[in-house]
Design goal:
heterodimer, A: about 130 residues, alpha+beta, 3-stranded antiparallel β-sheet, about 35% strand, B: about 450 residues, 7-stranded mixed β-sheet, 4-stranded antiparallel β-sheet
Chain lengths: ~130, ~450
């Protein structure tokens, strides 16, 4: 597994305590898992995604990632409605390991603007990882 | 692989390592009042001769042991078990107290379960089967829970009232405590489940039918599949007599999404009702919601074929309360027995025995109808059927019992509305002489 210093943590993204990343693109946001999360999980073999149109509250489980070691839930860092899911991951779940920041899992339309402020910046997230 | 208790030497060796003088010191942390005090009150030992006598006298109380023929089914079937099956299953490598799953030491067992899964999917026309569950009843309950997991937001299931009453009881036990809603579907005059009301059931995740059902009637699975899928629900079929699929179109080919049922017919003796075998299969797209254990084929580091448990990351010992089900085991020896049985018969043999069941049951049914009995349901049957008699059947049943023939189960024990109707079963084990004798008895 990677050392903290080896992790790729882009500065233009926001992060959550549960190791998801968030990227804002206009009215919608994309959500994926961080380099740290994919590295901890090991080879991902299956991504279970929600249905388009599903709505979640911040902190709800919106899917699962299955690796050769375990099945982990993924939690939504912002409340919102699912606009799209990344269908490419159905056939190629390993993309989450290979390119964690290109491999978004869902795209949502957030419903609570203030929750945006509760996300972590790259530096805050790095501090969290360093403990 | 053997599981033997530890010897006295081994126990002493281990106590020396842990630093305990006596075995009972290991239990010192258990409060005194929770421990067994004194001797357990059971009779003393018997000699081998006395013990054999004792059990033989107990066995003599069972009607079945002295009966010449048993014409009963209702979820437990008398089929011939080829000697090769008994012989294979008595091997100590298979007959252990616990199913060994460790791939490094249990390739034989794992391959056996893998073969069982393959044969099960072929018989049922499905893509994926698990390593088996406890019995038909718990398999049906697990199938309904699986459908509710797949449907996610729905909380209602519909089950046919022609499903084995015991299976339905188990379903209620499993689902009610979890606050799911169960709707029972009525039975039509043909003995088939009436699916016409499905559109009026809200929040419907799945519909379960049994075929052949408890009345022995073969359900019209193709038509049911269309109606159930039109109601946006998953279609579960179950069975208590898998032999029917030696002859009938498979549930998978008929449109079922999940298929489950009891596998006792495949090489297991009736043994006072158990142990059974829960057969369970589904379409590939639902495999990640499949409960229980699954064995997969893989290759080792040297490229040699090998077998391991697969999808285990979704099981309870890893995923705790989020596991797909609380079943982390299977009916190892029973699944192996079924595999050996299916392999011994092959698809041709299975078809021939199934045909014998069908033919003998049809012969008996027609013979009884000629004595004045009437079919309760008009639907097609396999090896079971329900009849009503012009006169009370009880005296005839008693006379037959005296002759060592156990004929018919009173349906009102399970369905109050069918007073006076009896459920019969004929398998390949019953000779024509016996069937003629029963028909003759009723004619007189």
């Amino acid at each position: 597994m990677k050392e903290i210093s080896e992790l790729n943590l882009p500065a233009d993204l926001f992060y959550s305590d549960d190791h998801e990343w968030v990227q804002r693109t206009g009215e919608t946001i994309k959500i994926g898992i961080s380099d740290y999360a994919q590295d901890q999980m090991g080879d991902i073999v299956f991504v279970e995604m929600p249905d388009i149109g599903d709505t979640f509250k911040k902190g709800d489980e919106f899917g699962t990632l299955e690796s050769v070691k375990a099945v982990s839930e993924v939690f939504i860092p912002l409340s919102g409605e699912v606009v799209t899911v990344n269908a490419a991951l159905e056939d190629a779940p390993e993309l989450v390991n290979e390119e964690p920041y290109a491999s978004w899992i869902i795209e949502i339309r957030p419903t609570v603007e203030s929750e945006y402020d509760e996300l972590l910046s790259r530096d805050d997230y790095l501090k969290l990882l360093q403990g | 692989m053997r599981y033997l208790p530890h010897t006295k030497e081994e126990i002493e060796e281990m106590l020396a390592v842990t630093g305990h003088g006596q075995l009972k010191e290991l239990f010192a942390h258990i409060p005194e009042n929770c421990r067994c005090q004194g001797e357990i009150d059971i009779p003393g030992p018997l000699s081998e001769w006395d013990l054999t006598d004792h059990f033989q006298s107990l066995a003599a109380n069972n009607l079945a042991s002295s009966a010449r023929a048993v014409l009963l089914g209702a979820g437990s079937y008398s089929h011939h078990i080829p000697e090769i099956v008994r012989n294979l299953m008595s091997r100590s490598e298979f007959l252990t107290a616990y199913t060994p799953y460790q791939p490094e030491m249990a390739q034989g067992t794992l391959q056996g379960i893998f073969e069982y899964q393959t044969l099960t999917t072929r018989l049922l026309g499905m893509e994926v089967a698990n390593g088996s569950m406890y019995d038909g009843a718990s398999a049906l309950a697990e199938a309904l829970l699986m459908a509710l997991r797949i449907a996610r937001k729905k909380h209602t299931v519909a089950i046919s009232s022609a499903i084995h009453p015991h299976y339905r009881k188990v379903v209620y036990t499993y689902l009610q405590a979890a606050s799911f809603k169960i709707v029972e579907l009525p039975v039509g005059r043909d003995g088939r489940t009436d699916c016409s009301g499905l559109q009026n059931i809200d929040d419907l995740a799945a519909v379960a039918l049994q075929s052949p059902n408890f009345f022995g009637v073969i359900e019209d699975l193709e038509t049911a599949a269309l109606k159930i899928h039109a109601a946006d629900a998953l279609f579960i079929t179950c069975f208590s007599e898998p032999f029917a699929y030696g002859l009938l179109r498979s549930p998978g080919a008929s449109g079922a999404d999940i298929v489950c049922g009891e596998g006792q017919s495949f090489g297991m003796s009736q043994s006072f009702g158990g142990p059974g075998l829960g057969m369970f299969a589904c379409r590939k797209k639902y495999q990640r919601n499949l409960p229980g254990r699954v064995v997969g084929e893989t290759v080792d580091l040297e490229g040699k074929r090998g077998y391991v448990l697969t999808l285990a990351t979704r099981e309870q010992h890893i995923r705790r309360e989020k596991a797909t089900s609380n079943i982390c085991s299977n009916q190892g020896i029973c699944a192996l027995t079924a595999a050996a049985y299916m392999a011994s018969l092959g698809s041709t043999g299975l078809r021939r025995v199934a045909k014998l069941n069908y033919d003998k049951a049809a012969y008996f049914k027609n013979g009884l109808i000629q004595t004045g009995a009437k079919l309760l349901f008009s639907g097609q049957t396999f090896n079971e059927f329900v009849l009503r008699f012009a006169d009370d059947f009880k005296p005839a049943r008693k006379r037959l019992l005296a002759k060592g023939i156990v004929a018919g189960i009173e349906l009102s024990d399970f369905y109050k509305e069918y007073e006076g109707a009896y459920l019969f079963c004929v398998t390949e084990t019953v000779s024509r002489t016996i069937l003629d004798e029963v028909i003759e008895e009723l004619r007189s």
